[in-house]
Design goal:
30% of the residues lie in helices and 16% in strands. The chain has 469 residues and is an alpha/beta fold. Strands 1, 2, 3, 4, 5, 6 and 7 form a 7-stranded mixed sheet that branches. It is found in: Plastid, Chloroplast stroma.
Length: 469
Protein backbone atom coordinates (compact mmCIF):
# COMPACT_ATOMS: atom_id res chain seq x y z
CA UNK A 1 0.00 0.00 0.00
CA UNK A 2 1.16 3.51 -0.75
CA UNK A 3 0.12 6.21 1.71
CA UNK A 4 0.03 9.82 0.60
CA UNK A 5 -0.81 12.65 2.94
CA UNK A 6 -0.85 16.39 2.78
CA UNK A 7 2.34 17.92 4.03
CA UNK A 8 2.21 19.12 7.64
CA UNK A 9 -0.84 20.92 8.11
CA UNK A 10 -4.83 -4.67 -2.10
CA UNK A 11 -6.41 -3.84 -4.77
CA UNK A 12 -10.17 -3.61 -4.74
CA UNK A 13 -11.16 -2.68 -8.23
CA UNK A 14 -14.65 -2.11 -9.66
CA UNK A 15 -15.31 -2.36 -13.36
CA UNK A 16 -18.69 -0.75 -12.79
CA UNK A 17 -22.05 -1.68 -11.31
CA UNK A 18 -22.84 -3.75 -14.36
CA UNK A 19 -20.66 -6.64 -13.18
CA UNK A 20 -22.98 -7.52 -10.32
CA UNK A 21 -26.06 -6.84 -12.39
CA UNK A 22 -25.14 -9.21 -15.17
CA UNK A 23 -23.65 -6.72 -17.62
CA UNK A 24 -19.89 -6.93 -17.65
CA UNK A 25 -17.84 -3.78 -18.10
CA UNK A 26 -16.39 -5.36 -21.23
CA UNK A 27 -19.83 -5.54 -22.82
CA UNK A 28 -19.43 -2.13 -24.39
CA UNK A 29 -20.89 0.20 -21.77
CA UNK A 30 -18.80 3.30 -22.37
CA UNK A 31 -18.75 6.19 -19.94
CA UNK A 32 -18.26 9.52 -21.67
CA UNK A 33 -18.25 12.91 -20.06
CA UNK A 34 -20.26 15.99 -20.85
CA UNK A 35 -18.38 18.95 -22.37
CA UNK A 36 -16.41 20.72 -19.63
CA UNK A 37 -17.51 24.03 -18.17
CA UNK A 38 -15.23 26.97 -18.81
CA UNK A 39 -13.43 26.57 -15.49
CA UNK A 40 -13.08 22.77 -15.61
CA UNK A 41 -9.67 21.20 -15.92
CA UNK A 42 -10.90 18.34 -18.10
CA UNK A 43 -10.17 17.75 -21.75
CA UNK A 44 -11.34 15.05 -24.16
CA UNK A 45 -15.02 15.87 -23.84
CA UNK A 46 -14.72 16.75 -20.14
CA UNK A 47 -12.89 13.59 -19.13
CA UNK A 48 -9.57 14.31 -17.48
CA UNK A 49 -6.53 13.16 -19.42
CA UNK A 50 -5.16 10.85 -16.73
CA UNK A 51 -1.89 9.03 -17.36
CA UNK A 52 -2.13 5.50 -18.71
CA UNK A 53 -1.89 2.80 -16.03
CA UNK A 54 -0.64 -0.74 -16.51
CA UNK A 55 -2.83 -2.41 -13.89
CA UNK A 56 -6.05 -1.73 -12.01
CA UNK A 57 -5.59 0.65 -9.09
CA UNK A 58 -7.76 1.56 -6.10
CA UNK A 59 -7.37 4.94 -4.42
CA UNK A 60 -8.72 5.34 -0.86
CA UNK A 61 -9.28 8.96 0.23
CA UNK A 62 -9.60 9.78 3.93
CA UNK A 63 -10.30 13.20 5.42
CA UNK A 64 -8.46 13.99 8.65
CA UNK A 65 -10.23 13.71 12.02
CA UNK A 66 -11.84 16.62 13.82
CA UNK A 67 -9.35 19.45 14.46
CA UNK A 68 -9.32 22.19 17.07
CA UNK A 69 -10.34 24.73 14.43
CA UNK A 70 -13.17 22.44 13.26
CA UNK A 71 -14.39 22.46 16.84
CA UNK A 72 -14.06 26.25 17.18
CA UNK A 73 -15.75 26.96 13.85
CA UNK A 74 -12.73 28.71 12.32
CA UNK A 75 -12.05 29.02 8.60
CA UNK A 76 -9.02 26.76 8.23
CA UNK A 77 -7.96 26.89 4.60
CA UNK A 78 -4.41 25.68 4.11
CA UNK A 79 -3.09 27.09 7.41
CA UNK A 80 -1.35 24.62 9.72
CA UNK A 81 -2.19 25.98 13.17
CA UNK A 82 -4.74 23.43 14.36
CA UNK A 83 -4.29 19.90 15.69
CA UNK A 84 -6.55 16.89 16.16
CA UNK A 85 -8.93 16.96 19.09
CA UNK A 86 -9.45 13.91 21.29
CA UNK A 87 -12.54 13.19 19.20
CA UNK A 88 -10.48 13.54 16.02
CA UNK A 89 -7.93 11.01 17.24
CA UNK A 90 -10.75 8.59 18.12
CA UNK A 91 -12.21 9.02 14.63
CA UNK A 92 -8.80 8.27 13.11
CA UNK A 93 -8.54 5.13 15.24
CA UNK A 94 -11.91 3.96 13.91
CA UNK A 95 -10.67 4.55 10.36
CA UNK A 96 -7.53 2.57 11.18
CA UNK A 97 -9.70 -0.38 12.23
CA UNK A 98 -11.72 -0.13 8.99
CA UNK A 99 -8.47 -0.38 7.03
CA UNK A 100 -6.75 -2.83 9.40
CA UNK A 101 -6.63 -5.79 7.03
CA UNK A 102 -6.11 -3.79 3.88
CA UNK A 103 -2.97 -3.97 1.82
CA UNK A 104 -2.30 -0.35 0.90
CA UNK A 105 0.56 1.93 -0.16
CA UNK A 106 0.73 5.39 1.68
CA UNK A 107 0.94 9.29 0.17
CA UNK A 108 -0.12 13.09 4.21
CA UNK A 109 -4.43 18.09 11.26
CA UNK A 110 -3.92 15.20 8.21
CA UNK A 111 -0.41 14.09 9.10
CA UNK A 112 -1.46 12.92 12.56
CA UNK A 113 -4.53 11.14 11.14
CA UNK A 114 -2.27 9.35 8.64
CA UNK A 115 0.11 8.31 11.42
CA UNK A 116 -2.75 6.77 13.43
CA UNK A 117 -4.15 4.93 10.40
CA UNK A 118 -0.73 3.82 9.17
CA UNK A 119 0.11 2.51 12.66
CA UNK A 120 2.85 -0.16 12.57
CA UNK A 121 3.15 -0.54 8.80
CA UNK A 122 6.75 -0.46 7.69
CA UNK A 123 6.34 1.45 4.42
CA UNK A 124 7.21 5.14 4.50
CA UNK A 125 4.47 7.77 4.32
CA UNK A 126 4.99 10.27 1.50
CA UNK A 127 4.17 13.94 2.23
CA UNK A 128 2.66 15.82 -0.72
CA UNK A 129 2.26 19.60 -0.51
CA UNK A 130 -0.38 19.72 -3.27
CA UNK A 131 -2.71 17.76 -0.97
CA UNK A 132 -2.96 20.77 1.36
CA UNK A 133 -6.39 22.23 2.00
CA UNK A 134 -7.90 24.97 -0.18
CA UNK A 135 -5.96 28.26 0.00
CA UNK A 136 -8.28 30.90 1.46
CA UNK A 137 -5.73 33.66 1.95
CA UNK A 138 -7.08 36.48 4.19
CA UNK A 139 -9.99 34.32 5.35
CA UNK A 140 -7.75 31.77 7.06
CA UNK A 141 -7.90 31.68 10.86
CA UNK A 142 -11.04 33.78 11.16
CA UNK A 143 -14.09 32.63 13.05
CA UNK A 144 -17.04 32.50 10.68
CA UNK A 145 -18.77 35.49 12.26
CA UNK A 146 -15.50 37.45 11.93
CA UNK A 147 -15.30 36.61 8.24
CA UNK A 148 -18.87 37.82 7.77
CA UNK A 149 -18.23 41.05 9.68
CA UNK A 150 -14.93 41.92 7.95
CA UNK A 151 -15.62 40.84 4.40
CA UNK A 152 -19.41 41.17 4.02
CA UNK A 153 -20.23 40.59 0.34
CA UNK A 154 -17.12 38.47 -0.26
CA UNK A 155 -18.03 36.18 2.63
CA UNK A 156 -21.58 35.86 1.31
CA UNK A 157 -20.24 34.90 -2.12
CA UNK A 158 -18.02 32.26 -0.48
CA UNK A 159 -21.18 30.83 1.10
CA UNK A 160 -23.50 30.86 -1.92
CA UNK A 161 -21.28 30.99 -5.03
CA UNK A 162 -17.92 29.51 -4.02
CA UNK A 163 -16.66 28.71 -7.57
CA UNK A 164 -16.73 32.44 -8.41
CA UNK A 165 -15.52 33.61 -5.00
CA UNK A 166 -12.52 35.94 -5.30
CA UNK A 167 -10.23 37.06 -2.48
CA UNK A 168 -6.85 38.79 -2.61
CA UNK A 169 -6.92 38.44 -6.40
CA UNK A 170 -7.41 34.65 -6.28
CA UNK A 171 -10.25 32.26 -7.13
CA UNK A 172 -9.63 29.59 -4.43
CA UNK A 173 -12.01 26.90 -5.70
CA UNK A 174 -10.77 27.16 -9.29
CA UNK A 175 -7.16 26.97 -8.07
CA UNK A 176 -8.04 23.93 -5.97
CA UNK A 177 -9.55 22.06 -8.94
CA UNK A 178 -6.39 22.66 -10.99
CA UNK A 179 -4.22 21.50 -8.10
CA UNK A 180 -6.31 18.33 -7.66
CA UNK A 181 -5.62 17.42 -11.29
CA UNK A 182 -1.87 17.64 -10.71
CA UNK A 183 -2.31 15.45 -7.60
CA UNK A 184 -3.91 12.70 -9.70
CA UNK A 185 -0.91 12.62 -12.01
CA UNK A 186 1.33 12.00 -8.98
CA UNK A 187 -0.98 9.48 -7.29
CA UNK A 188 -1.43 7.33 -10.38
CA UNK A 189 2.30 7.41 -11.11
CA UNK A 190 2.95 5.16 -8.09
CA UNK A 191 3.26 1.42 -8.62
CA UNK A 192 0.98 0.31 -5.79
CA UNK A 193 -2.32 -1.37 -6.60
CA UNK A 194 -3.93 0.47 -3.68
CA UNK A 195 -3.08 4.00 -2.58
CA UNK A 196 -4.16 5.64 0.68
CA UNK A 197 -4.49 9.44 0.51
CA UNK A 198 -5.07 11.28 3.80
CA UNK A 199 -5.95 14.91 3.24
CA UNK A 200 -8.66 17.52 3.86
CA UNK A 201 -12.30 18.31 3.19
CA UNK A 202 -12.16 20.57 0.13
CA UNK A 203 -9.19 18.91 -1.54
CA UNK A 204 -10.81 15.49 -1.20
CA UNK A 205 -13.98 16.90 -2.75
CA UNK A 206 -11.88 18.22 -5.62
CA UNK A 207 -10.08 14.88 -6.05
CA UNK A 208 -13.38 12.99 -6.31
CA UNK A 209 -14.93 15.56 -8.63
CA UNK A 210 -11.98 15.88 -11.01
CA UNK A 211 -11.65 12.10 -11.23
CA UNK A 212 -15.33 11.92 -12.22
CA UNK A 213 -15.02 14.78 -14.73
CA UNK A 214 -17.09 17.22 -12.65
CA UNK A 215 -16.42 20.96 -12.52
CA UNK A 216 -16.20 23.48 -9.70
CA UNK A 217 -19.99 23.77 -9.55
CA UNK A 218 -19.88 20.49 -7.60
CA UNK A 219 -17.98 22.07 -4.71
CA UNK A 220 -19.87 21.25 -1.46
CA UNK A 221 -22.06 18.70 -3.28
CA UNK A 222 -19.92 15.60 -2.57
CA UNK A 223 -19.67 15.64 1.23
CA UNK A 224 -16.42 14.78 3.03
CA UNK A 225 -16.85 14.38 6.81
CA UNK A 226 -14.08 14.02 9.39
CA UNK A 227 -12.38 10.66 8.77
CA UNK A 228 -14.86 9.89 5.98
CA UNK A 229 -13.54 7.31 3.50
CA UNK A 230 -14.09 7.57 -0.27
CA UNK A 231 -12.92 5.00 -2.82
CA UNK A 232 -12.17 5.41 -6.53
CA UNK A 233 -11.26 2.56 -8.87
CA UNK A 234 -9.09 3.08 -11.94
CA UNK A 235 -9.13 0.35 -14.59
CA UNK A 236 -6.85 0.37 -17.63
CA UNK A 237 -8.55 0.42 -21.02
CA UNK A 238 -7.64 -2.16 -23.70
CA UNK A 239 -6.45 0.51 -26.10
CA UNK A 240 -4.43 2.42 -23.51
CA UNK A 241 -4.95 6.07 -22.65
CA UNK A 242 -6.94 7.38 -19.70
CA UNK A 243 -8.30 4.61 -17.43
CA UNK A 244 -11.97 3.97 -16.72
CA UNK A 245 -12.97 5.48 -13.38
CA UNK A 246 -15.66 4.35 -10.96
CA UNK A 247 -16.71 5.79 -7.59
CA UNK A 248 -17.02 2.73 -5.35
CA UNK A 249 -18.09 4.63 -2.25
CA UNK A 250 -18.24 8.17 -0.93
CA UNK A 251 -17.81 9.40 2.63
CA UNK A 252 -18.09 6.20 4.66
CA UNK A 253 -17.75 7.72 8.12
CA UNK A 254 -16.93 6.39 11.60
CA UNK A 255 -20.36 7.66 12.66
CA UNK A 256 -23.78 6.71 11.34
CA UNK A 257 -24.54 8.23 7.90
CA UNK A 258 -28.01 9.21 9.10
CA UNK A 259 -26.85 11.04 12.23
CA UNK A 260 -27.94 14.64 12.55
CA UNK A 261 -25.45 17.05 11.06
CA UNK A 262 -24.84 19.76 8.53
CA UNK A 263 -24.66 19.29 4.77
CA UNK A 264 -22.49 21.86 3.03
CA UNK A 265 -22.55 23.84 6.28
CA UNK A 266 -26.34 23.87 6.55
CA UNK A 267 -28.87 21.68 8.30
CA UNK A 268 -30.70 19.27 5.99
CA UNK A 269 -34.40 20.13 5.74
CA UNK A 270 -35.26 16.99 3.79
CA UNK A 271 -33.47 13.71 3.17
CA UNK A 272 -33.66 10.77 0.79
CA UNK A 273 -32.13 7.49 1.96
CA UNK A 274 -31.49 5.03 -0.87
CA UNK A 275 -31.46 1.44 0.41
CA UNK A 276 -30.31 -1.32 -1.93
CA UNK A 277 -32.36 -4.44 -1.22
CA UNK A 278 -30.58 -7.49 0.15
CA UNK A 279 -28.81 -10.14 -1.89
CA UNK A 280 -31.23 -12.35 -3.83
CA UNK A 281 -31.24 -16.11 -4.29
CA UNK A 282 -29.65 -15.95 -7.72
CA UNK A 283 -26.23 -14.45 -8.39
CA UNK A 284 -26.28 -15.59 -12.02
CA UNK A 285 -28.39 -12.81 -13.52
CA UNK A 286 -27.97 -12.43 -17.25
CA UNK A 287 -30.35 -9.51 -17.54
CA UNK A 288 -31.96 -6.98 -15.28
CA UNK A 289 -35.45 -8.40 -15.73
CA UNK A 290 -34.38 -11.89 -14.66
CA UNK A 291 -33.06 -10.45 -11.40
CA UNK A 292 -35.99 -8.21 -10.56
CA UNK A 293 -38.31 -10.71 -8.89
CA UNK A 294 -36.08 -13.06 -6.92
CA UNK A 295 -36.56 -13.38 -3.15
CA UNK A 296 -33.65 -12.64 -0.84
CA UNK A 297 -31.36 -15.38 0.39
CA UNK A 298 -30.28 -15.61 4.03
CA UNK A 299 -27.53 -13.01 3.55
CA UNK A 300 -30.08 -10.64 2.01
CA UNK A 301 -32.43 -11.13 4.97
CA UNK A 302 -29.61 -10.31 7.39
CA UNK A 303 -28.70 -7.24 5.32
CA UNK A 304 -32.29 -5.97 5.48
CA UNK A 305 -32.38 -6.49 9.25
CA UNK A 306 -29.11 -4.62 9.72
CA UNK A 307 -30.43 -1.75 7.61
CA UNK A 308 -33.66 -1.61 9.62
CA UNK A 309 -31.60 -1.45 12.82
CA UNK A 310 -29.53 1.45 11.47
CA UNK A 311 -32.62 3.40 10.39
CA UNK A 312 -34.20 2.97 13.83
CA UNK A 313 -32.29 6.09 14.91
CA UNK A 314 -34.25 8.14 12.37
CA UNK A 315 -37.99 8.63 12.06
CA UNK A 316 -38.75 7.79 8.45
CA UNK A 317 -41.92 8.22 6.41
CA UNK A 318 -42.75 7.13 3.83
CA UNK A 319 -40.93 4.08 2.53
CA UNK A 320 -41.11 3.85 -1.26
CA UNK A 321 -40.08 0.61 -2.92
CA UNK A 322 -39.83 -0.90 -6.36
CA UNK A 323 -42.30 -3.78 -6.99
CA UNK A 324 -39.81 -6.64 -6.61
CA UNK A 325 -40.02 -9.32 -3.93
CA UNK A 326 -36.63 -8.37 -2.46
CA UNK A 327 -37.51 -4.66 -2.33
CA UNK A 328 -40.93 -5.25 -0.77
CA UNK A 329 -39.53 -7.64 1.85
CA UNK A 330 -36.73 -5.22 2.74
CA UNK A 331 -39.28 -2.39 3.03
CA UNK A 332 -41.53 -4.40 5.31
CA UNK A 333 -38.61 -5.27 7.58
CA UNK A 334 -37.73 -1.57 7.91
CA UNK A 335 -41.38 -0.66 8.50
CA UNK A 336 -41.91 -3.25 11.23
CA UNK A 337 -38.81 -2.13 13.12
CA UNK A 338 -39.86 1.53 12.79
CA UNK A 339 -43.32 0.77 14.15
CA UNK A 340 -41.75 -1.05 17.12
CA UNK A 341 -39.56 1.95 17.97
CA UNK A 342 -41.21 2.42 21.38
CA UNK A 343 -40.76 -1.23 22.34
CA UNK A 344 -37.14 -1.11 21.20
CA UNK A 345 -36.38 2.01 23.25
CA UNK A 346 -35.75 4.27 20.25
CA UNK A 347 -38.86 6.43 20.68
CA UNK A 348 -41.45 7.16 23.32
CA UNK A 349 -44.38 6.40 21.02
CA UNK A 350 -44.99 3.98 18.14
CA UNK A 351 -44.21 5.27 14.66
CA UNK A 352 -46.60 4.96 11.78
CA UNK A 353 -44.84 4.33 8.48
CA UNK A 354 -46.58 4.28 5.12
CA UNK A 355 -45.13 1.89 2.55
CA UNK A 356 -45.71 2.91 -1.06
CA UNK A 357 -44.98 0.72 -4.06
CA UNK A 358 -43.88 2.15 -7.38
CA UNK A 359 -45.70 1.04 -10.48
CA UNK A 360 -44.46 -2.22 -12.01
CA UNK A 361 -41.70 -1.84 -14.53
CA UNK A 362 -38.92 -3.84 -16.13
CA UNK A 363 -35.48 -2.62 -17.06
CA UNK A 364 -33.56 -4.70 -19.55
CA UNK A 365 -31.48 -1.90 -21.06
CA UNK A 366 -29.50 1.07 -19.87
CA UNK A 367 -32.03 3.38 -21.53
CA UNK A 368 -34.89 1.77 -19.61
CA UNK A 369 -32.98 2.11 -16.33
CA UNK A 370 -32.36 5.76 -17.10
CA UNK A 371 -35.98 6.49 -18.03
CA UNK A 372 -37.39 4.65 -15.00
CA UNK A 373 -34.88 6.45 -12.78
CA UNK A 374 -36.05 9.79 -14.16
CA UNK A 375 -39.68 9.05 -13.41
CA UNK A 376 -38.76 7.79 -9.94
CA UNK A 377 -36.69 10.92 -9.24
CA UNK A 378 -39.59 13.20 -10.19
CA UNK A 379 -41.85 11.19 -7.86
CA UNK A 380 -39.41 11.57 -4.98
CA UNK A 381 -39.13 15.33 -5.42
CA UNK A 382 -42.93 15.58 -5.41
CA UNK A 383 -42.99 13.53 -2.21
CA UNK A 384 -40.50 15.88 -0.54
CA UNK A 385 -42.48 18.92 -1.71
CA UNK A 386 -45.53 17.77 0.26
CA UNK A 387 -45.58 20.35 3.04
CA UNK A 388 -48.07 18.43 5.21
CA UNK A 389 -45.08 16.85 6.94
CA UNK A 390 -42.01 19.13 6.96
CA UNK A 391 -38.56 17.69 7.40
CA UNK A 392 -39.32 14.42 5.65
CA UNK A 393 -36.94 11.47 5.67
CA UNK A 394 -37.95 9.39 2.66
CA UNK A 395 -36.56 5.87 2.35
CA UNK A 396 -36.35 4.37 -1.15
CA UNK A 397 -35.75 0.61 -1.46
CA UNK A 398 -34.80 -0.89 -4.77
CA UNK A 399 -32.27 -2.46 -7.10
CA UNK A 400 -28.77 -0.89 -7.17
CA UNK A 401 -29.24 0.03 -10.85
CA UNK A 402 -32.23 2.25 -10.12
CA UNK A 403 -30.43 3.91 -7.21
CA UNK A 404 -27.44 4.72 -9.40
CA UNK A 405 -29.82 6.34 -11.88
CA UNK A 406 -31.30 8.41 -9.01
CA UNK A 407 -27.84 9.56 -7.88
CA UNK A 408 -26.91 10.54 -11.44
CA UNK A 409 -30.22 12.43 -11.80
CA UNK A 410 -29.58 14.21 -8.50
CA UNK A 411 -26.19 15.37 -9.80
CA UNK A 412 -27.86 16.63 -13.01
CA UNK A 413 -25.70 14.38 -15.18
CA UNK A 414 -26.61 12.25 -18.18
CA UNK A 415 -27.07 8.50 -18.53
CA UNK A 416 -23.49 8.21 -19.76
CA UNK A 417 -22.44 8.55 -16.12
CA UNK A 418 -24.32 5.42 -15.02
CA UNK A 419 -21.19 3.28 -15.28
CA UNK A 420 -19.24 5.70 -13.07
CA UNK A 421 -20.86 4.55 -9.81
CA UNK A 422 -20.97 1.25 -7.94
CA UNK A 423 -23.49 0.12 -5.30
CA UNK A 424 -23.55 -3.12 -3.31
CA UNK A 425 -26.64 -5.01 -2.18
CA UNK A 426 -27.48 -3.87 1.33
CA UNK A 427 -25.63 -0.58 0.78
CA UNK A 428 -27.05 2.80 1.74
CA UNK A 429 -26.69 6.18 0.03
CA UNK A 430 -27.97 9.45 1.52
CA UNK A 431 -29.00 12.66 -0.27
CA UNK A 432 -29.66 15.79 1.81
CA UNK A 433 -31.61 18.87 0.75
CA UNK A 434 -30.46 21.78 2.95
CA UNK A 435 -32.46 24.25 0.81
CA UNK A 436 -35.56 22.07 0.60
CA UNK A 437 -36.74 19.95 -2.36
CA UNK A 438 -36.39 22.87 -4.77
CA UNK A 439 -32.68 23.21 -3.98
CA UNK A 440 -29.71 21.12 -5.01
CA UNK A 441 -29.23 17.74 -3.43
CA UNK A 442 -26.02 17.20 -1.44
CA UNK A 443 -24.62 13.67 -1.57
CA UNK A 444 -23.89 12.78 2.06
CA UNK A 445 -22.66 9.28 1.29
CA UNK A 446 -22.69 6.64 -1.45
CA UNK A 447 -22.60 2.86 -0.89
CA UNK A 448 -22.22 2.92 2.91
CA UNK A 449 -21.96 -0.69 4.15
CA UNK A 450 -20.35 -0.42 7.60
CA UNK A 451 -23.75 -1.04 9.24
CA UNK A 452 -23.66 -4.61 7.91
CA UNK A 453 -21.05 -5.53 10.52
CA UNK A 454 -19.22 -8.75 9.67
CA UNK A 455 -21.01 -8.73 6.31
CA UNK A 456 -19.86 -5.22 5.37
CA UNK A 457 -17.92 -4.84 2.12
CA UNK A 458 -14.19 -4.35 2.88
CA UNK A 459 -12.80 -1.11 1.56
CA UNK A 460 -10.17 -2.92 -0.47
CA UNK A 461 -12.15 -6.00 -1.47
CA UNK A 462 -11.47 -6.94 -5.07
CA UNK A 463 -14.52 -6.66 -7.30
CA UNK A 464 -12.83 -8.09 -10.36
CA UNK A 465 -13.78 -11.57 -9.21
CA UNK A 466 -17.34 -11.05 -7.93
CA UNK A 467 -18.39 -14.47 -9.19
CA UNK A 468 -15.75 -16.19 -7.08
CA UNK A 469 -16.70 -14.03 -4.08
Amino acid sequence: MLALASSPSSPVIRLGIWTRLGIRASSGLTVRRRPPQSDEVGVDGGRLAFPEIGAAKRVVLVRHGQSTWNEEGRIQGSSDHSVLTTKGEAQAETSRQMLLCDTLIPLIRSKRTAEIIWDARMEEMIPESDLREIDLYSFQGLLKHEGKARYGDAFQQWQIDAPNFNIDGHYPVRELWARAKSCWDKILAHDGKSVLVVAHNAVNQALVATAMGLGTEYFRILLQSNCGVSVLDFTPTPDGGSPKICLNRLNQTPNSPIAAGASAGRKARNRIILVCHGTTQSNDEVSFSSAIDKPMNMLGIIQSQKTAELLLDLKVNPIICTPSIASIDTSMTISKVQEAADCLGADCIPRYVEVKKMEAFAFDTVKEIWDEGGRAWDTLLQELADESEPGKNVVVVGHPAIHIALIVRCLNLTKKWLGSFHLDTGGISVIDFPDGPDGRGVIRCVNYTAHLGRWSIPITRSTLDDEEF
